[in-house]
């Protein structure tokens, strides 16, 4: 066997070589580079993006047309009227109510912009006192505000809502620092001033207390317009600061809790100042009171007050208010303080408000005393 293989050995390589020459060698196909494949896919996807965007645009337009058709078919009939420079849209059956609410609102706020009406934007208000929100749709008007409340809310809520939206329009274009300081809306209603009067009487602050007693420099400080800026120590006594820290409640952080306890429980003034060191001082009188001062400046300024206020936009806040009012700072603050204190509600309540009723009560209790004496004497 071995001799056979040995004899055939030289012929095997020759046979293999001949077979390789006769049969073409295909080899293993070379794989494409991964980067080139990804690039091809990315190019194909990018070419589809314009088609996808166009399809989405057409689909969105079709959906919008369908919704608009449905709204037009179900839109309730509406009525339109004007209150001052503003257009009001309401249901026909609510026209009288809407007109009463917006006319009263405009008459109340009109003196704030008297002589400067051209500065107001012609906004549209959609009024809806509803059982259901369906059917009151208004689109295509960027100058639009809604005054819509459920039926369970009384008319007073509608009036407050109307006053708020109209007041917001009046404040558009005001300097931002004035908006931040005043809370964004002037207050002149007597019911609002009654709350400001309560603040002036009861706020625990030496600045407010000084203003209540007639010191106009303290009035400037109480509304946060002092020349020296915000300051805890100038506005509040140590005892008042302690009361303020107590009202904030015990903090969650252990380190601050120790300082809080030293301030509140151990009555350490230094701990109170340390606790408030990283906090912005709180202006003693609230934004409600500050808004009432802004409203008073516009109210007393007469025609053109709003224009003068906007013209002084780059001035300090107190100068803006005095420009609107046309009065010196002391006169403005004194006038505002007087109007606030005059808005205080009476301390008497119930039936005992007049001398006659007081006399009747005396007679009543006197009669009871006489009957009691006669009963005890037999």
Tell me the quaternary state: single chain
Categorize the overall geometry: extended
Strand order, largest beta sheet = 1-2-3-4
Main sheet properties: 4 strands, mixed
Mean pLDDT: 79
Distance between the termini: 160 Å
Q: How many helix segments?
A: 18
Helix content: 55-70%
Features:
378 residues; alpha/beta; 18 helices; 6% strand; extended; disordered C terminus
What can you tell me about this protein's structure?
- Helices cover 60% and strands 6% of the residues.
- The chain is an alpha/beta fold and 378 residues long.
- Strand 2, helix 4 (95-109) and strand 3 form a beta-alpha-beta unit.
- Residues 1-32, 347-354 and 372-378 have low confidence and may be disordered.
Short description:
The protein is α/β, with parallel strands linked by helices and 378 residues long.
Architecture blueprint of SSEs:
Elements: H1 2-8, H2 11-22, H3 34-74, E1 79-83, E2 86-90, H4 95-109, E3 124-130, E4 144-150, H5 155-171, H6 176-182, H7 190-202, H8 206-212, H9 216-222, H10 232-235, H11 238-247, H12 254-264, H13 269-275, H14 287-301, H15 305-311, H16 317-325, H17 329-342, H18 355-377
Parallel strand pairs: 2-3, 3-4
Antiparallel strand pairs: 1-2
Helix pairs in contact: 4-5, 7-8, 7-17, 8-9, 9-17, 11-13, 12-13, 14-16, 14-17, 15-16
